[in-house]
Amino acid sequence: MLGQLFVRECRQTAKSLIYWLIVLILIFDFTTQLGEMEIDEEPQPGQESYGYRQSEDPDIIMRSTLGQLTEEYVRENYTTYPIGFYKNVTLNEKDDARIGQILEETAGIAGRESAEQVREEWYAAQNGQDSADNMENMMYQEPLKVKPADGLTYEHFTELMDEADKILGGGSNYGKEYREKNAQVPMTYEDAVKEYGALIEEDRLTGGYARLFCDYMVIFLGILPVFLAVTRGLRDRRSMMQELIYTRKCSSLTVMVSRYLAMLVMLTLPVLILSLNPLLKCMSYAGKAGIAADTLAFVKYTFGWLFPTIMIVSALGMFLTELTDTAAAVLVQGAWWFIAVFGGVDRLSGGMYGWNPMPRHNTELNWQGFHDGFAQLAANRLFYMAAALLLVALTVFIYSQKRKGRLHIRGKILANRKSKS
Amino acid sequence: MERYWQIEKVNLKYHIPLHVLISVLLLLISPFLIGVANLGAQDTAKALEMYVALIGIVLLPPVFLPEQNHDIRDLIYTKYLNGTAIYLVRILGNILLMAVLLGLYIGMLAYHGCEFPAGKYFCGTLTEMLFLGGLGVFFYGLCDNLVIGYMAPIVYYIAAIGGGEKYMKMFYPFSMVRGSYGEKVWLAFGAVILVIGGVWLRCRRKRRLVR
Prior knowledge:
The complex is a heterodimer of chains A (about 425) and B (about 210).
Chain A: H1 2-14, H2 17-34, E1 52-54, H3 58-75, E2 78-80, E3 87-89, H4 93-107, H5 111-127, H6 135-138, H7 154-167, H8 176-182, E4 184-186, H9 189-201, H10 206-221, H11 224-238, H12 242-246, H13 252-289, H14 297-324, H15 328-343, H16 367-372, H17 374-403, H18 412-420
Antiparallel strand pairs in A: 1-4, 2-3
Helix pairs in contact in A: 1-13, 2-10, 2-13, 3-4, 3-5, 3-8, 4-7, 10-13, 10-14, 11-13, 11-14, 13-14, 13-17, 14-15, 14-17
Chain B: H1 2-15, H2 17-28, H3 30-33, H4 41-50, H5 55-59, H6 70-77, H7 83-111, H8 118-143, H9 146-161, H10 165-168, H11 182-210
Helix pairs in contact in B: 1-7, 7-8, 7-11, 8-9, 8-11
C-alpha cells in the first residue's frame, strides 16, 4: 500500500505546477551561481596573492582587532551579530567617546582624525597615494593592522575589548568569539600549496566542489520545499476531497509517510541531476591532471548536507499546514529562512556550522575547517533529521485525529460548540 | 461610497487582522534583529529595503483569499456588485495600512536619531512593498494559488539578495542603499501593472466560472 501511494504521490507531484516552478528556480540558482564555475589551478610561485588564513598569534590578534576597531571608529559604524544576526550599530556621543578612549589606551591613537590618518597611511603604503581614497580598491588590499600601545598586555587588551563589545551590545568583532577571527594573515606560497594539496588529496577534488555546490543550493532549498508541502497539504481541501480520503481504509501513517517520502524524492532528484554538471567538470579536470577524484562525492554531500534541510523544511510545512489548514507555514518558514541566512553571513568561509539549518561553506577550499567542524556539522544534520521525523510523527497524529472528527480548526470547533450548546 | 466602505470594514474586521498582526510583530521585533538607532542614510535604507518592505508580501497577496473557496466565490459572483470593485477596495485599503505602518516605522527611526531623507525613503520603500505585494497578487491571480502568490515575491527577494543586481537591473529592489532612485520608478510602474494584471486575471477566471 505504501509503495502504491508513494508512486501515486510522485506522479501527482510531477504534474504539479509548483513543483516545476521549484525546479526552474533551482536551475536558475545553479546557473547564476555555479554556471561559470572553473576548477582551481595549482598555485604557482610568485603570484600576487594567495588569499588569507587565520592566525593564533596574540600579537597578530591584537594588531588585527585594533585595525578593525580603528576602521569602524573612523566609519562611526560598527558591525555586530548580537543573536547571530547582522546588525549595524551607531553609537551615541557618550559611548562613542568611550570607544575613542579605549582605542587611545590600546593603540595610542587619540581622536578620529588621528585614526583616519593611520588608516590612510596604511592603504597608501600598500598601493601608492592615488588608491588610498579608492574604497573599491580597499577590498583587494590587506586589512588594516594597528600596532598595540607600548606596554599593553594581552590580558588588559582582552578586558578593554570585552568592554567595547559590551558597549556595542555584544556580538561585535571585539568579543571573545570573534577576536581570533580578526587575525587574518596573508597566505604564503607554501600555505597555498598546502591548502590546494588538501583539496586534491583529502577532498579528491570533487569533495571541495560538492561542498561549494551544497553552499549555493542550500540557500534556496532552505525555503522552496515548504511551498510544495503547503500546496500538497491544502490540495485535498481545495478539491474538497479531504473527507473522502478520511474514510479510506489506508492508515494515517501510510498516507502521510507516502506524501512525505514522495516530496523528499521529487525534491532531491533535480538537485542530483544538477550536480552532474560540476561533477563532469571536476572529472574532466581530474582526468587531465591525473587526480583520483571521488565520483560519488556529490551524491554523498547531497544526502549528507542538503537532504536534512529538505527534510526539516518539508516536515515543518506539512506539520503547520495540517495543523492550521492555512498557508501559515510559508510565513513561518520565510521568517526562519531570513534569520538563518542573515545569521550565517559571518560564517561563509566554512568550519563554523553551528545549529544553522542552512550550513554554509562558500569555498571549495578550507578542507581543514570542514574537518575541524565535522562533528558539529554531523550533529547539526542529525538533529534536523530527527526534528523532521518528529514533526512528521506529529503530522500523522494530527491527521489521524482529524479523521476521527477532532482538531478541525477552520470554523469547525466553533460550529461544534454551537451545536452542542 | 457607503458600499465600498462596508467592503473595507468587512476586510478590516474579518480578513486582514491576522496579516496586520504578523506585520506589526515583524516591525516590533526588528530592534532585536537589525540596528534601528543612530543610523546613517545608507544603513537606514538597508533596514527599510531589506526588512520593512517584507510586510508588502504579508499584506497584499491575500486580497483574493476570502474567495479561495469555490463555493463562496460562486456565491459572491452572483451578487450585483462587480468583483473587481471588491478586490480594488481591499487592495487600496491594504496599501493604506502598509503606508500607515511604514510611516510609523519611519517616525520611530527618526525619533531614534537616524539621519535620512524621510520623504524619499518613505516613497522608495512603499514602492518596493507594492512591487513585492504586486508580484504576489499577479501570481495569485494567474495560478489561483496563494502559495504561488507568496512564492513569487519571496523568490524575487532571495534572488535580489544573492547578487540579483546583475540580472534585475532596473527592477533591483535595494537601490536606495546606494543612493539610486531610478529603479523605484520602474518598480512603481511594474507594481501598478502587476496589481491590475492580477485583478484582471482573477476576474477573467470569474467570468469563465460564471459561464
